[in-house]
Write a structure and sequence with these properties.
The chain is α+β, with helices and mostly antiparallel strands and 390 residues long. It has twelve helices and 15 strands.
């Protein structure tokens, strides 16, 4: 069955697929997830993607549908960054970005609350907007480093800034008729942060060992398991097919990533006529630039690059592949030529494309542009878990 927009499964949203002009997608795997949210003018995709992932985990575990507060986690992350930056003499990372394990670490520290309890918008706006708040945070951080001291007033000022923009943290709250603290609510949800693993694939470190992926947003120096590329992709596929979703971090700065068209592709401009003889004749007369312009009209699928570990590594080491954005893989589809795509839930709201805020990323794109993924350890094949001793 071919889908044009998106399908509802078990009263939650999952991605179907959009026909981006000539793209026609058939759903092959769909895992239930919660509704699409909007990070708006904030650099908090890491938190929105991981929160969405954890909400899907609650669905999978039979814990019901929950809308968890992203900004409750963001607040603790900012406090952790400020501490790290001060101890590093101002050389730390206090940008808005981060990675999935930051969510896990903050959850361990302070728990979690529902969105209705802590929206994180304590200013005159309907949507998140963090520019001014981050300017204040940077000013306080710089002053503490310059003074070589964090006074009691420093702590008061930091918390006053976060209270002013995000709102004071609730010590207790009532949710669905029951009183909780952030810690007791987290405990009742039953999410164990030790159950989640981050996986990557690069050739400059040994396979089947952990290493710190060298990207700026890995300011907590978390280690990730390094797998051969084909094995990483097989693990992602197996997870989705088994009813597990996957948090994804990667590069979306490429021209082949088009959220408005709801697709992300990695075209092979040297072989764009591989599918149809008419294309071969047409593209033979074009320059590479003209070929790309034609492909990026997104009128139909064209052949894509066969991504090897070497191609992937070159992208990373030449900084062509960067950790721009986190999203949430929730299923798989195939196009009319049988090519596989990953159904991807974004956090840019539902109004910026005709696919309800989802897009479909091609297998080639994901192979080339993934920095890492996070999933439940039970989603890994038994043999791999044994090999990694997890």
């Amino acid at each position: 069955m071919k889908h044009i927009l998106f399908a509802a499964i078990a009263a939650t949203l999952t991605a179907g697929s959009v026909s981006a002009q000539g793209y026609q997608f058939t759903e092959t795997v769909a895992v239930p997830v919660t509704s699409v949210k909007n990070q708006a003018s904030s650099g908090t995709c890491w938190c929105f993607a991981t929160t969405s992932f954890m909400e899907a985990e609650l669905l999978r575990k039979g814990k019901g549908t929950h809308d968890l507060s992203e900004m409750f986690i963001v607040r603790q992350k900012l406090l952790n960054q400020l501490n790290d930056n001060y101890l590093r003499r101002g050389k730390g990372n206090i940008g808005q970005g981060s990675l999935s394990h930051t969510w896990n670490n903050a959850f361990r520290q302070v728990g979690i609350v529902p969105e209705e309890v802590y929206t994180g918008i304590n200013y005159d706006s309907e949507r998140h907007s963090h520019g001014e708040m981050m300017s204040m945070i940077h000013a306080v951080a710089d002053a503490a480093v310059k003074n070589r001291k964090r006074s009691p007033q420093y702590d008061q000022v930091v918390n006053a800034i976060l209270d002013a923009y995000l709102g004071p943290v609730p010590e207790k709250f009532t949710y669905k008729g029951k009183e909780y603290t952030p810690k007791s609510f987290a405990s009742e949800l039953g999410l164990d942060m030790d159950d989640y693993v981050e996986l990557t694939s690069f050739t400059h470190h040994p396979y089947y060992e952990e290493f710190e992926v060298e990207v700026p947003d890995n300011w907590e120096h978390a280690k990730m398991w390094n797998l051969p590329l084909d094995e990483l992709m097989a693990v992602i596929d197996g997870a989705l097919a088994g009813g597990y979703t996957v948090a994804w971090d990667g590069d979306v700065s490429e021209k082949g990533f088009n959220f408005g068209k709801a697709v992300a592709i990695n075209p092979d401009v040297k072989n764009v006529g591989r599918y149809e003889a008419a294309d071969t004749a047409k593209f033979a007369k074009m320059s590479e630039k003209e070929r790309l312009e034609e492909v990026y009209k997104f009128e139909k699928p064209y052949p894509e690059i066969i991504v090897t570990p070497e191609i992937r590594q070159e992208g990373f080491e030449t900084f062509a592949t960067t950790d721009d954005h986190l999203m949430h893989l929730t299923g798989m589809v195939k196009d009319q030529n049988g090519n596989k795509y990953y159904v991807t839930k974004n956090s840019w709201g539902t109004e910026r494309n005709d696919n309800g805020g989802y897009l479909n990323m091609s297998d080639s794109f994901v192979r080339a542009k993934t920095i890492y993924v996070m999933m439940h350890k039970d989603a890994l094949p038994r043999e791999l878990r044994k090999k990694l001793n997890i």
